[in-house]
Design goal:
This protein has nine helices and nine strands. It has 285 residues and is of the alpha/beta class. Strands 1-4-3-2-5-6-7-8-9 form a nine-stranded mixed β-sheet, with helices on both faces. Helix 4 (108-130) packs parallel to helix 8 (190-209). The protein is globular. One of its GO terms (molecular function) is oxidoreductase activity.
Length: 285
């Protein structure tokens, strides 16, 4: 289901998943505020909550209401994702922000289904539209610092090697790793970190297989959302938009190698260890 708030379409269409609240919604609002040539599809699983979010944003930013639409999409469901892709129509899509995700304490199967397989199926469905874009279409996968932390602590050397340097491996190897964890019981919130590490690896393969697109992942930072409530996070969702919006809209990423992982300060970070924001960017392979 696609619900329009206004009528006019801007030049560049962008889909943001999991956008009815938190960081996703903050990204939507910043795009509407700072880029008058962007038309945003606020994608969410719940039509009720998604439409309500659109109405609230339109009331707060009436000048941008014509550039906002709700797009019903459950990233964990193949049929829902395909229906959403079809509702976008045949025109080019400039950007996709894979923000939808679930947090800690949900188990390996659920975490992988939403945080890894979800972005994979969304990308598969929307790649034909992204490839029509001029300028080059962009994909931004919202990962987490939990990803390099998981890789760094991973006790299975073969898994650590693949997730630390996916360019030297294959997507099938990453899928095998994910499958090997699906029936395990979560420990120390490893499920979330694994799912985001797999998402970072997927980013590498998407970039390699689609050189005409600009594909990167990032951590938005330790932001207070429903995922982190009660865990010491204090930053507002707006503070989590720096890296995602940079990767989506700034000219610089289009001139750099893609398939990279960026910290919340919009600087490149390694896949296998945490880099503190504000420290020198990672310059390795």
């Amino acid at each position: 289901m696609l619900v329009a708030v206004g009528e006019a379409l801007a030049t560049m269409r962008v889909v943001v998943t999991g956008a009815n609240k938190g960081i996703g919604r903050a990204i939507v609002e910043r795009l509407l505020r700072d880029y008058s040539d962007v038309h945003v599809y606020l994608a969410a699983r719940s039509a009720e909550r998604g439409v309500a979010a659109c109405d609230e944003i339109a009331a707060k930013m009436p000048e941008a209401a014509s550039r906002l639409e709700f797009l019903e999409m459950d990233v964990s469901d193949d049929v829902s994702v395909r229906r959403a892709a079809d509702s976008l129509g045949p025109g080019p899509l400039y950007g996709l922000v894979n923000n939808a995700g679930i947090g800690f304490g949900r188990g390996f199967r659920d975490a992988l289904q939403t945080n890894f397989y979800g972005p994979m199926r969304v990308c598969e469905a929307l790649l034909p539209l992204l490839k029509q874009s001029d300028p080059a279409g962009r994909i931004v996968n919202i990962a987490s610092a939990s990803a390099p932390n998981f890789v760094n602590r991973c006790g299975v050397r073969e898994h650590r090697d693949v997730l630390a340097r996916p360019a030297a491996s294959t997507l099938d190897a990453v899928l095998d790793i994910a499958k090997s964890y699906e029936t395990m019981t979560d420990y120390e919130d490893a499920a979330y970190g694994l799912s985001k590490a797999c998402l970072n690896a997927l980013t590498v393969f998407l970039a390699r297989d689609n050189p005409d697109l600009v594909v990167n992942s990032c951590t938005p930072g330790y932001i207070l959302t429903d995922l982190t409530r009660g865990m010491g996070a204090s930053k507002k969702p707006e503070e989590g938009t720096k890296a995602p919006v940079y990767l989506l809209m700034d000219p610089e990423p289009a001139s750099l190698p893609t398939g990279r992982f960026y910290g919340s300060d919009a600087k490149r970070s390694p896949l296998d260890r945490y880099r503190e924001p504000g420290t020198p960017p990672y310059d390795g392979p």
